[in-house]
Amino acid sequence: MGPLIPQGFINADLSLFFAFVIGLGFGYVLEQGGFSNSRKLAGVFYGYDFVVLRVFFTAATTAALGLLLFQYLGWIDYDLLYINPTFLWSIIVGGVIMGVGFILGGFCPGTSIVAAVIGKIDAMVFVVGMMIGIFFFGSFYEVFEPIYTGYSFGGTFVYDSLGMSRDFFMFMLVAIALTAFIVTRKIEDKVNGIQSTPGLFHPSYNGPFALMLGLALLVLFLPETPKAKWFEEDAKEILAKAASEEHYAEINEVAWKLLNPKANDLLLIDVREKDAFAKFSLPGAVNIPLSDIMLPQYKSILFDADNVVVFYSFSSTNADQAWMLTSRNGLKNARVLKGGLNGFFEEIFAKEHTTDSKNEMQQFDARFRERAMEAFKTGQAAEKVATKGTPVKTIVEIEAPPAGKGGC
Known about the structure:
Blueprint: H1 15-32, H2 38-46, H3 51-73, E1 86-87, H4 88-105, H5 109-117, H6 121-139, H7 141-148, E2 152-154, H8 158-162, H9 166-191, H10 206-221, H11 235-244, E3 248-249, H12 251-259, E4 266-270, H13 274-279, E5 286-287, H14 299-303, E6 308-312, H15 317-328, E7 334-337, H16 340-350, H17 360-377
């Protein structure tokens, strides 16, 4: 569930609720699979029931293949996955203790809880013993710490340790799992005195085996990462738009919409650092520094906005980068303030607005910028009305930046 929260698929405030629901489902599946019976787990060690082995192999291969395919499609970001560090002595000692516990108690930690909930006395005893072990380990942690943290390999992967590619390891894991299905079924039949099904495996395995092998082969031959994720825009089209400068929003247009709230369909995104934003900004702007522009927490502001997103910085450089990054990742309705804040202040505040020109458009521009300068100086600039996916913003009166300040 971890990657779903940072990616915005699950509301972080409801994470415990979803964890509770998933936990109920997991417990129900364990119970329906017979895992609340201690004989199920013990059967693996005595050779009469390998259902547990097959279930865990199925879970491991399904999860691994799903992660690889979802990462390839861009639905899961590998960088958001936490890899538990590997400590050799912990694995050896813990594996021995857990194995002995499996044989003696017939439960693992998860199945013991499921069995205890439905009233199995042996499971309750197992849970009490587990709690005593946890208390004992915590109380004497300093004694066990050298073993617990001994021989650290860090967050390593099995395929790295074996010196093979990730995708080939995945294919081999699936092949081993399917082989284990066949072999364990034959062992079960022999131990239980059952006549084995003619052929290599039961016909009911045909579909699942074909699906797993097909997915493993797909992962094996797919490139490690796609040239472009499914939601990404074509890079050549973005570069063509950037070269044509059609993504720029003119200063007059932005100024006019700031002064006319009913016609204002802009969501201004200030990509400067927080300290620069705190000194001055355009009215109603939201601050998302360029370095944070692709963080998951800002996805709803940018991608769920009902309005045209306009990026700006001191000049156009950083805003252009923000536009390219977000456009590449699927943001359709985005533009960049032409000239940035430096250009805005130059045109509205610093440049002399003369109406002596014989060109009517130049006269119109001069009159508008003169009125805009007065409106901004007196705080009449309109705050954009907050819409879906945008936070409430406050009006900030613009002050011209100190001389010589500002850059990219």
